[in-house]
Give the backbone structure.
Amino acid sequence: SSEVFSWKFLHPLWQSPLTIPGGTRQSPINIQWRDSVYDPFLKPLKISYDPTTCLHIWNNGYSFLVEFDDSTDRSIIDGGPLENQYRLKQFHFHWGAMNDWGSEHTVDCKFYPAELHLVHWNAVLYPTFEEAVMEGNGLAVIGVFLKLGACHEGLQTLVDALPAVKHKDTVIEFDVFDPSCLIPSCPDYWTYAGSLTTPPLTESVTWIIKKQPIEVDENQLEAFRMLLFTSDGEEEKRMVDNFRPLQPLMNRTVRSSFQ
Ligand SMILES: NS(=O)(=O)c1ccc(CCNC(=O)Nc2ccc(Cl)cc2)cc1
Ligand SMILES: [Zn+2]
């Protein structure tokens, strides 16, 4: 059907079409717990990060990215639903203006105030991240929900650095951080075939969504919300609501590693 174009189809933040023409495995999605299928052949996820591979924090005008040296296999994940090991490239968050929303994925239609994405790429099969982004098995992203609760000590070291990257296109050196402190101890996860949730929205992501959220406190969420979408000197726009709307499940099954 030749849908009449309307600006309402464009995402306010990404200025790109909300739906990818022909997209069959778009993210994020709602995870309906009772429709997920236990897969006994799913392995435990193996995570081994070298904290010294941490490089810097960068405000890219949409979120803040903590980027890692991915020139070797020093920070990797393996096992779980994955057929190769994947290298850690960066992690970032999505959050809301209020605690009632902010995550990209939902569980039984429940939003969390924020969601962490640890982005890995298949360096076994592909020479660069940019090429992996274009391949169906190119990326693996671990999603961790953040819920309001106790102060998260490990996150606090990151929060303390955020004022230095308040504006778009600012960077601060951040040279020792172990992101495994942000991953809940419970091994349970859901997994499904999806996409990047921001441009280029390519259908290249094996999503691994942890069942257990981590707890952060109000001050830590507020620290995210004091970041700016805008550059220094521009009219200030607070960096909030940087999440994509839910996408249709279409012909996909969400598998669980737990019964
Ligand atoms: N949200 S994801 O894990 O599917 C995702 C992972 C990697 C990319 C490519 C690198 N670019 C990037 O990370 N950009 C970005 C991140 C957060 C926001 Cl809010 C906006 C833009 C894009 C999306
Ligand atoms: Zn993300």
About this structure: The two ends are 42 Å apart (CA to CA).
